[in-house]
Amino acid sequence: MAEPELLLDSNIRLWVVLPIVFITFLVGVIRHYVSILLQSDKKLTLEQVSDSQVLIRSRILRENGKYIPKQSFLMRKFYFNNQEDGFFKKTKRKVVPPSPMTDPSMLTDMMKGNVTNVLPMILIGGWINWTFSGFVTTKVPFPLTLRFKPMLQQGIELLSLDASWVSSASWYFLNVFGLRSMYSLILGQDNGADQSRIMQEQMSGAAMAMPADTNKAFKAEWEALELTDHQWALESVEEELMSKELDLDGMFSSELPTGIF
Amino acid sequence: MASVSELYDVTWEEMRDKLRKWREENYRNSEQIVDVGEELINEHASKLGDDIWIIYEQVMIAALDCSRDDLAWSCLQELKRQFPGSHRVKRLAGMRLEALERYEDATKLYDSILQDDPTNTAARKRRIAILKAQGKSAEAIRELNEYLEQFVGDQEAWHELSELYINEHDYGKAAFCLEELMMTNPHNHLYCEQYAEVKYTQGGMENLELSRRYFAQALKLNNRNMRALFGLCMSASHIAASPKVSAKVKKDNMKYAAWATAQINRAYQLAGRGTKESKCSVKAVEEMLESMQITMS
Questions:
Q1: What is the dihedral of CA A7, A10, A13, A16, to 10 degrees?
Q2: Which helix H or strand E contains B96, and what residues bound it?
Q3: Integer Rg of chain A from CA
Q4: Which of A212, B3, B109, B167 would be A97's cystine partner, CB 3.0–4.6 Å?
């Protein structure tokens, strides 16, 4: 069934498509600056900093322990994992899971996040829907099934219209996600206008809650360290070194720099 | 006196880039920084934009090194005006007090920063530096140990602690600090070499063996480390000369020492290719190596 090509009024392009792009872009930029203004400093406690560094040290011990002598490695492993007073066995941190209800700072953070991101999106989406309703705005370049019609053709009640023709509201949403790369070009990488990144963060938010998991992290490190063995990297270093002559190329050729420039 | 830009015929952008390079690579050539930075600040302040603040910080620290209190004071004033209440600027004010040897005032200042923000590492480290400057090395070591208990990952601090222990001749603990550094930087030949030297100084057959291995490792990481090459030669010949070793160990170590000697000779030949004095230095090296061989057997 060949669909007749619809010819849209070019005024649509001038007065609908472009303004929506501008509006989305400007709102994004404004959102970025507002989020900077509303940002609260996250203060880390001394304990948190110290714990994160200890975990890093233990991980480095596991990965690079083969470069130090066996005795030193065992000494450190003993310090961490000893049955009675190893660091990972002995240290129990008081864990208060920061639920949004009890922790006031988390609550305000959540509210700020919602206000800056979700609220404008809803408001502007609704306004665009109301202003630019009743006509088709653009056509997506790939065919869509009829299921998409109620979603993408909000104000248009034409049963026979191909689902590829979409209304201005869906053009707005397309812009919201599409302008993400433009934002990173103009505002730099870590910008507050990047909505999809924020939504991803909210979905994986549980994975990032480090302070609540210090005890679990310690336990995981303890297990991992128990399993590590010491394979000294320097077993046969002399043989490897002396298998060939030293490469002394270029050792004495460069002139010493004089002066500042 | 001619300005830097006239002397070297460079533009202000090149001077600014040079300062950035020095900043990023942690150079401590304070006199040069003061020369270049002072001119940049006096002549080209308006063109630098926001870069000027970090240049003020860099020039101030260099000015303290060169005893230029006037320049340091003016930089500090500018920074205080722009960033009132900043901890970073407070630390700079403390450093200036240290330079004037007003250690109690400086310590009070750092304590106030720490009261406000217990995680501020810079203030803690300055306190330890004050103790070191006053010669109270035992207290400095103690405070540095406490600092490292909290901030286990601070490599600069581990290195400083190893230096303090070496000065106190506590080689075992210095070796521990260097091991931390070797673990976090496995490809840095300098840490391997320093560790090997500490082990060599400690003495004892096991430590000599370890030192020989780590000299070899340092050479493997960087073939041109002459100090490690000499160290390898010395430790191997020392082990071979010791009366208590088995024949096999003695033979192995003599082989290592001979190889190292050959490489040293080669290096000195290469070094003296163009110059006339080379013959004397090569001869001196050969004589030195010969004398070591004699004590071996």
A1: -100
A2: helix B87-99
A3: 30
A4: A212
Q: Out of A61, A234, A261, name the one closest to residue B217 (CB).
A: A234
Q: What is the pLDDT of residue A211?
A: 47
Cβ of residue A239 closer than 8 Å to a chain B Cβ:
no
> What is the model's pTM?
0.75
CA gap B107, B123 in Å, rounded = 9
b/e per residue, A92-107, with b = 16+ CB within 10 A?
A: eeeeeeeeeeeeeeee
User: What is the Cα–Cα distance from A136 to A84, expressed in whole angstroms?
Assistant: 73
Distance in angstroms between the alpha carbons of the first and the last residue of chain B: 63
Q: Given this model, what pLDDT does residue A20 score?
A: 84
Report the interhelical angle of B247-271 vs B278-296 (nearest 10°). 170
Tens digit of pLDDT for each residue in B243-260? 888 999 999 999 999 899
Distance CA B161, CA B140 (A): 9
3-state SS of chain A?
Answer: CCCCCCCCCHHHHHHHHHHHHHHHHHHHHHHHHHHHHHCCCCCCCHHHHHHHHHHHHHHHHHHHHHHCCHHHHHHHHHHHHCCCCCHHHHCCCCCCCCCCCCCHHHHHHHHHHHHHHHHHHHHHHHHHHHHCCCCCCEECCCCCCHHHHHHHCCCCCCCCCCCCEECHHHHHHHHHHHCHHHHHHHHCCCCCCCHHHHHHHHHCHHHHCCHHHHHHHHHHHHHHHHHCCCCCCCCCHHHHHHCCCCCCCCCCCCCCCCCCC
User: Contacts of residue B211 in chain A, CB cutoff 8 Å?
Assistant: none
pLDDT of residue A190: 58
Helix (H) or strand (E) holding B45: helix B30-48
- How many C-beta atoms lie closer than 10 Å to residue A243's C-beta? 8
* Whether ipTM exceeds 0.90: no
- Contact across the interface for A242 and B259, Cβ inside 8 Å: yes
The Cα–Cα gap between B232 and B254 comes to: 11
Contacts of A172 (CB under 8 A, 6+ apart): A20, A23, A24, A124, A125, A128
Answer whether B119 sits within 8 Å of A65, measured CB to CB.
Answer: no
Residue B184 has pLDDT above 90, yes or no: yes
Concatenate the DSSP letters of all residues of B253-286 into one string: HHHHHHHHHHHHHHHHHHHTSS-STHHHHHHHHH
Nearest Cα neighbor of A180 from A117, A134, A242, A243 is: A117
Residues of B in contact with A238 (CB under 8 A): 212-213, 216, 256
